[in-house]
Amino acid sequence: MKSLEKIIALFRRFPGVGPKQAERFALYIVQTPDGQIEELVEGLRAVKNSVRRCAECANYAEEELCPVCADRSRDRSVICVVSQPQDVAAIEKTKTFNGVYHVLHGAISPMDGVNSEGLKLGELLRRVRASDGAVNELIIATNPDTEGETTAVYLTRMLKDSIPSITRIACGVPLGGDINYMDEVTLGHALKGRTKL
Q: Which residues touch 59 (CB under 8 Å, ≥6 apart)?
C-alpha cells in the first residue's frame, strides 16, 4: 500500500508527529468521508494562499498587517522580539503586553547552520531606525536556551546604540515550582532576574 505509506511519511514531516501518530492520522484520512477530506484539502490550500508575513513585524497575517500591527491603540514605543509566530500567540494570551512585536522566524544556531542573515534581524534594525527614536524599549523574549541566549546577545550588541532600554524576559522558578527540584542554571537565572518587592 504505497499510497498509505506515502501519507504516513508526509505526516511524519509535521513537527512533533511520531510514527504511531502519523499512522493514526493516515488511517483517519482513509476512513473519513470524501466530503470532509475535500474540506481539509480546500482549507489547506486557502491557508497556504492567504497567509503571508506582516509587512511590519513579520508575524503571520491575512492582510498586509497582522491584527496587532493594525491595532493603532498598541504602544509602538515598545517592541517585543520573539523567535516564532507562536510566541506572539503565547504572549498575547497573557493579556499583559500592549506593545508590538517583531518575529525573527528562528534563532541564531551555528550548529544548525542558522546565522544572523537567516533571520529577520535586518528588518528589525531598519524598523528601529525608521522610527526616529520613537522606540523606547526592546524586550527580548527568545527562549532561554543556547540559541535564544546567543540571539539575545547579538540583538543587544546590534541595537544598544539605537534604543534607550533593552530588556530580557525573566527566567527562573515557575509559579507553583519547588526550589528543591530546580536545576542550578534555572536557580541562577532566577537569582539574577530577581525583582524588588
A: 53, 66, 68, 69, 85, 88, 101, 103
Give me the sheet containing 165-168, strands edge to edge.
99-103, 75-82, 137-140, 165-168
In whole angstroms, give the CA distance from residue 85 to residue 19.
26
pLDDT in tens, 142-180: 988 889 889 999 999 999 999 999 999 887 777 777 777
Q: How many helices (H) and strands (E) does the chain have?
A: 8, 6
CB 104 within 8 A of CB 81: yes
The DSSP 8-state label assigned to residue 118 in this structure reads: G
Tell me the pLDDT tens digit for each residue of 113-151. Answer: 777 777 888 899 999 989 888 999 999 999 888 898 899
Q: By the 8 A CB rule, do 53 and 59 touch?
A: yes
- Single-letter residue type at 194: R
